[in-house]
Write a structure and sequence with these properties.
Layout lengths: L2 H12 L9 E6 L14 H7 L7 E3 L5 E3 L2 E8 L2 E6 L13 H10 L17 E8 L2 E6 L6 H4 L15 H5 L10 E5 L6 E5 L12 E6 L3 H9 L5 E2 L7 H5 L4 E16 L9 E2 L9 H9 L3 H8 L4 E3 L22 H10 L6 E7 L5 H13 L2 E7 L2 H9 L5 E7 L6 H8 L19 H11 L4 H17 L4 E13 L2 E2 L14 E2 L1
Parallel strand pairs: 1-10, 1-11, 15-16, 15-17
Antiparallel strand pairs: 2-3, 4-5, 5-7, 6-7, 8-9, 9-10, 11-18, 12-17, 12-18, 13-15, 14-18, 19-20
Length: 512
């Protein structure tokens, strides 16, 4: 065979084979995972990265709708029993078949990882045990009706029972980091790139990348610079100030979509001596008309369009309108300063009052300035204090704020998470009201929340939850400002649908 013939044959064979470059994906991530242990330290940085290695029984699509994961089906047996069927033929990265015993071992491990600073146990609340029926069938027993169990199970990663008895150290060393996900562990050390290798036998279908590296680049400017310089192929959490720059560069593309993260205002509705309120020893925000005036003064469209570069969706409810139990068609209030002043006067506060608006440093300081300007225009003299990140949550937990602004994510993809944690009174039902730092809630509202959380019929539960969301917005117990968008960017030759939970799942990033 001549040299020319051999070269032509080689070229024809290579034409159908992706290049090495096309088989490697380099991702620049804002926050790196701090562990390879899927049951250690619950936070977005960890769950977002580890979902590339491990799978859950129930999965979520980009808009947070539930879909089958390792479990191909599930059903309610009675008020305290759910039955799940596993997919046949699923194998862990070490070749062991997935069985119901692995599920039982994973559930047992979650509350028993020693020294866990933020365990995943919240997602197993109400679960009293797992009964193995056969290799592919198991039943979950609960202490009472638990309609959000499938939703909660989107956060519980399944590991083989062979490693379930090992600790955080063995997972971080890679010894126990075995899942069923689209990628196997390549290498990792804290604050170094997480390197992943394709799982050729993943149950979910073809995996587009042979190798994925997730490199921590916490600095916003450096992360954008790395993409534009070609040092990485994809980045998450694009800063707003760089959006137009990326939109104008043909080498890269912006991937944005609605997220579960809402910018909310939290007024103290309980205490007369709420910190930062200057109203002669009284708290005007205990009066619903004052809170409605504060809401009515806001130009939500302007905040979303101008301050947030059009990458937010205005709303006055505290949750995204597209998640389960939200009010899908609630109109956005138009700012009306005259009506707001009239409400203040009607409530006996026509002379106005003063307050300090405490503000999280995460994506909200410019929004807080716009809120302060709007309130000042209706007679509420408002100053802004941006609290450093290290202090913001501890001070919030001590209730050091009379009114504060922060970003809240409905992590479960349904409204019961916010309603149960922020609108239920604290200390009445174990686990509920844990994030209620404003004193919101009444005995009657608690009863409605408890009823909704125990309703197994999805249609009825959605109706009850929507009524509670509407009540909270109507009474301005939590004042919604806008729903942030998940903003990512990558090379123009890639396709990606931004996820509402802001996770970056490498299997969803694909060559065009």
């Amino acid at each position: 065979m001549s040299l020319l013939t051999r070269l032509a044959l080689a070229a024809s064979l290579l034409a159908g084979v992706p290049t090495v470059q096309a088989q490697t994906l380099r991702i620049g991530i804002q926050s790196p995972p701090s562990t390879l242990d899927p049951h250690w330290l619950l936070n977005l940085s960890n769950t977002g990265a580890l979902r590339n290695i491990y799978d859950t029984l129930v999965a979520r699509d980009a808009s947070m709708a539930l879909k089958p994961g390792l479990a191909e089906s599930w059903r309610v047996v009675d008020d305290t029993t759910w039955e799940f069927k596993l997919r046949p033929g699923v194998r862990f990265h070490d070749g062991a078949p997935l069985t119901s015993a692995d599920v039982a071992a994973s559930f047992a491990r979650v509350p028993n990882v020693p020294g866990n600073p933020n365990p995943y146990t919240i997602y197993l609340a109400g679960v009293t045990g797992v009964e193995v029926v056969d290799d592919l069938t198991f039943r979950i027993r609960t202490s009472g009706p638990t309609p959000i169990l499938p939703t909660n199970l989107t956060q519980i990663f399944i590991v083989p029972r062979s490693v379930a008895g090992l600790g955080n150290a063995e997972f971080n060393a890679g010894q126990a980091a075995i899942g069923t996900g689209p990628f196997r562990l390549g290498s990792w050390r804290a604050n170094d790139p997480l390197v992943l290798r394709r799982n050729e036998s993943w149950w979910g279908g073809a995996v587009p990348w042979d190798t994925v590296s997730m490199t921590p680049i916490p600095n916003d400017a450096a992360r954008v610079g790395a993409l534009l310089a070609g040092d990485v192929d994809f980045i998450n959490n694009v800063p707003l100030q760089d959006v137009e720059r990326i939109r104008g560069d043909q080498r890269v593309a912006l991937f944005a979509g609605p997220s579960i993260y809402a910018v909310n205002i939290y007024p103290d509705v309980e205490r007369d001596d709420a910190p930062g309120i200057e109203a002669g020893g009284r708290n005007p925000m205990k009066e619903v008309r004052v809170r409605r005036a504060m809401s009515l003064a806001l130009n939500r469209e302007g905040i979303s369009r101008t301050i947030l570069e059009g990458l937010a969706d205005p709303t006055d409810q505290a949750v995204p309108p597209f998640i389960f139990g939200a009010v899908a068609d609630r109109p956005v209030p138009t700012a009306d300063l005259a009506a707001a002043r009239a409400l203040l006067a009607e409530a006996g506060w026509g002379q106005g009052f003063g307050l300090t608006l405490f503000c999280s440093p995460n994506r909200t300081p410019r929004i807080c300035q716009a809120i302060a300007a709007a309130w000042t225009r209706i007679g509420i003299r408002t100053s802004v204090e941006v609290v450093p990140q290290a202090n913001f949550l501890p001070r919030r937990n001590r209730r050091d704020y009379g009114v504060f602004v922060t970003v809240f994510g409905s992590l479960t993809g349904e409204t019961s998470y916010l309603i149960g944690s922020q609108l239920h009174r604290r200390g009445v039902v174990p686990g509920l009201g844990a994030l209620n730092f404003t004193g919101a809630g009444t005995e009657a509202m608690d009863a409605l929340i408890d009823r909704a959380r125990g309703t197994l019929d999805d249609t009825d539960r959605a109706r009850q939850l929507s009524a509670l969301v509407r009540q909270a917005a109507d009474e301005a117990l939590i004042i919604g400002v806008g729903i942030l968008r998940s903003v990512n960017a990558g090379k123009a030759g890639l396709s990606f649908t931004a996820r509402a939970d802001e996770e970056v799942q490498a299997v969803d990033i694909r060559p065009r």
